[in-house]
Amino acid sequence: MSTTEELVLLDFWPSPFSSRVKIALAEKGLTYEAREEDIFGEKSSLLLKSNPIYEKVPVLLHNGKPVVESSNIVYYVDEKWPSPSPLLPDCAYGRARARFWTDFIDKKMFEGGSAIWRSKGEELELAKTQFIDILKKLEGAMGDKDYFGGDKFGYVDVVLIGLSSWFLAYEKFGGFKIDNENPKIGAWIKRCLTRESVAKSLPDPQRIYEFVGEMRKMNGIE
């Protein structure tokens, strides 16, 4: 990155969506300044100005210009800095497939997991079944490959692994183990965590579990 370029990430430490961006930036060897936002309190004027539509993180400011929505930011980072290795596939079909599964993950995963910790009784059992089914569909998409893009860590892997720090909370509040229900995803998570870009970018799952526990109390679930 040119010394004249500046990257600032508007962040919130538990955000799995911010984690995606951090992983993508780390994959490209880019340095940036992370600025923590108070999502539950008074949001900064910079955040409100940079993302007036959704007023949420992450926002990547590149030389002062805001890029918003995490999967879009990852796409921007990959296009702007194709070296040392592109995250998206070279072929049009591969890129289309990556966009499809990114859309599936964005629409299903976080809400599906949130339904687990927000629920009790029969609703919890249904939410757990639906979440496991989402992961089974993703296992089918990965097939017998090590990563979603094939043999190489890529765009869809970045998008999904950013969410994985929340999985411990889903397991504990849902009473299940991903390693048992979705062993291929469990193995994939362990494989991804061997990458420095992933390991250093994800928050501690135990800390996320405690954070979710506090949110349950705030919402009168416990």
Walk me through the structure.
The protein is α+β, with helices and mostly antiparallel strands. It has two domains: 7-80, Glutaredoxin, CATH 3.40.30.10; 92-218, Glutathione S-transferase Yfyf (Class Pi), Chain A, domain 2 (Up-down Bundle). It has helices spanning 16-27, 45-50, 70-80, 92-117, 121-142, 155-161, 167-174, 178-181, 183-193, 196-199, 205-218, and strands at 7-11, 33-36, 59-62, 65-68. Strands 2-1-3-4 form a four-stranded mixed sheet, covered by helices on one side. Strand 3 (59-62) and strand 4 (65-68) form a beta hairpin.
Question: How would the blueprint of this fold be written?
Answer:
Layout lengths: L6 E5 L4 H12 L5 E4 L8 H6 L8 E4 L2 E4 L1 H11 L11 H26 L3 H22 L12 H7 L5 H8 L3 H4 L1 H11 L2 H4 L5 H14 L4
Parallel strand pairs: 1-2
Antiparallel strand pairs: 1-3, 3-4
Helix pairs in contact: 1-3, 1-6, 4-5, 4-6, 4-7, 7-11
Q: How large is the count of helical segments?
A: 11
The largest sheet, given as strand count, sense and whether it forms a barrel, is: 4 strands, mixed
Q: Please tell me the overall pLDDT.
A: 96
Q: What proportion of the residues is helical, as a percent range?
A: 55-70%
> What is CATH's topology name of the largest domain?
Glutathione S-transferase Yfyf (Class Pi), Chain A, domain 2
Q: Using only CA atoms, what is the Rg?
A: 17 Å
Order of strands, main sheet, comes to: 2-1-3-4
The level-1 CATH class of the largest domain: Mainly Alpha
The percentage of residues in β strands lies in 5-15%
